[in-house]
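Today's session is about reading a structure prediction critically. Students often jump straight to the picture, but the first step is always the sequence itself: look for stretches that repeat, for charged clusters, for runs of hydrophobic residues. Only then move on to the predicted structure, which in these notes is written as discrete structure tokens rather than atom positions. Here is the chain we will use throughout the hour.
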Amino acid sequence: MQKDYSHDIARELNVKPPQVAATISLLDEGSTVPFISRYRKEATGNLDEVAVTTVRDRLAQLRELDKRRETILKSIKDQGKLTDKLKEKILAAQTLAVLEDIYLPYKPKRRTRATVAKEKGLEPLAKAIFAQQGIAVESEAQKYVDEKKKVADVKAALQGAKDIIAEWINENAPVRAQLRELFRESAVITSKVNKGKEEEGQKFKDYFQWNELGKTAPSHRILAVRRGEKEKILSVRILPSEEKALTIVEDMFVKGPLTQDDCRLVQEAAADSYKRLLSMSLETEIRLELKKRADLEAIEIFNNNLRQLLMAPSLGQKRVMAIDPGYRTGCKVVCLDDQGQLLINDTIYVTAAPAKLEGAAAKIRDLCARYAIEVIAIGNGTASRETETFIKSIGLPSEIFVTMVSESGASVYSASEAAREEFPDYDVTVRGAVSIGRRLMDPLAELVKIDSKSIGVGQYQHDVDQTLLKRNLDDVVISCVNQVGVEVNTASKQLLTYVSGLGPTRAQAIIDHRNAYGAFKARTQIVDVPGLGQKAFEQAAGFLRIHDGENPLDRSAVHPEAYPIVERISQDLQCQIIDLMKNEALRQRIDLQKYVTETIGMPTLVDIKTELAKPGRDPRPPFEIFTFKEGVNTIDDLAPGMKLTGVITNITAFGAFVDIGVHHDGLVHISQLSDKFVKNPHDVVKVHQKIEVTVLEIDLPRKRIALTAKRQ
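Below is the predicted structure for this chain, in token form.
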């Protein structure tokens, strides 16, 4: 029988235990976070997605802790050393660190100085000294001198006894707890450059002679020094004051004056225990703790950036020409229909001789006319501004607008298995251009095809816990996909994969069924897909859309399990369901209280009424045309004081990077983001946000641009 964790988690979240218990039950039944937070509000007491995710993660932690607890209990029991008191302590341990401290004396260990001393029969001597009863230590030690046991003299006997005492102190849970707190509160991270690595490690120059209190050090600096250490540029230690640490250990174990020989020996053993054992062990712990905190902070920044990028405005179904700019190899041009399907591809050269330029211009004008192009999307990489200038100069119809699109990650997609499956007969340049055009039409649908780590909106993403990063980024993608909803008849396998309850196998099965039998006419037909049973249908149905389906509710976020309620409402109002969607006056007449049941309450009914007003509404903001300042194409065109419009491409703990159209992003330091004090950049700006900036400084050798968003 599973242990009940609901009270513990409820206390941590400051919610009611029944809310957590219901959430745990739904999770154990296989329900997903989006499904629980969207369609089981009555059961969970309206817990949102963040709370449900927290319950899921905390539940996994507590279960893992109990699994370790059971392993430890079994190990000590098998040794024949498990007492009722010890079992009680193990069962009461609330953290893994405390649990491991209790287990340490019983943990099977490799040969140590202490085990060697015990093999020589020196444990009784150690006990006598550790008792600090004022014994004559040298006389007592003489009894243990034994050539056969390799205890050559009194000095060797006393050293062996001190080694044993040092290990006892190291395995003492209370002293470890006190020292752990000291490390957490006052350990200082100190880094210095390794000899001969000064030139090679210039990017770590700020950390050649650096120290900072660990508990307040920001994520990016912790990860930076760790990377410098990994690359063998820096040497790093994380320790508190040795004097304070030794005082804690000695105060706990030295029971008398140091003029008393046995007390002096215990003091020496305590100092040795700290310097040789405790400090090393606890430094490893604090390193892991600081790394975990830094990882969580960095991952949270990545999560926020990724969510904002995925939820960027969608242009929608337009006929798009996409251009992947280039100098030597030319610009790859593709035309896409309003569903994002490739119609034609070609190449033009925007830095060629005038005669060839006219040929390129004619080609673009012809393609625009032939394929009724509405928008031209230009990738923001090499030669992007030159390409933009050229396209705007060739006399295209005024209704065709030109815009820049971030091509971050497009090269990753173009070389991916997904791109090869989709475009087996085209090279990477064509695939990359298609990706640029499609991400303008629907950023979410296109970006899900790319490994989130490759999108370039993170900070030290390759240094953090990769398993934790992937789980968090997957959560963000799943959340965004299900928040927006997915058109089941046109979605790619990658997009369907992230729908609640599906995954890659069921996503492929849906596409195979779609290819074999044609478009789905109703949500209920999705159950016919092989391998997609009632449970998967329950989890997925509310997030799948059929815009031209037989039932108008199929294009909304109303779950099929609630269709009977909407049908009752329409019957009561003597109208059709489509009338409820079109007529605000009819919706105003709905008395939701009449439709409350044991399983569907007011929160769900309110959601249903909202959906009827805007069925399948897109939660993303409206699309806005954006252009960079004319005549500012390279970093050489910049000057201090110049005012520009840019787009935020990445947010870190120390500020925001802004694309101002010169091929090198500028940095708005956190201190320059607002006239007011800013603690977290995400409080004031978002990825893909348009922003007005002023150039503060240009460092041409290092290609660095300092910007400010403050009013000048």
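Discussion point for the tutorial: The domain at 6-105 is CATH 1.10.10.650 (Arc Repressor Mutant, subunit A).
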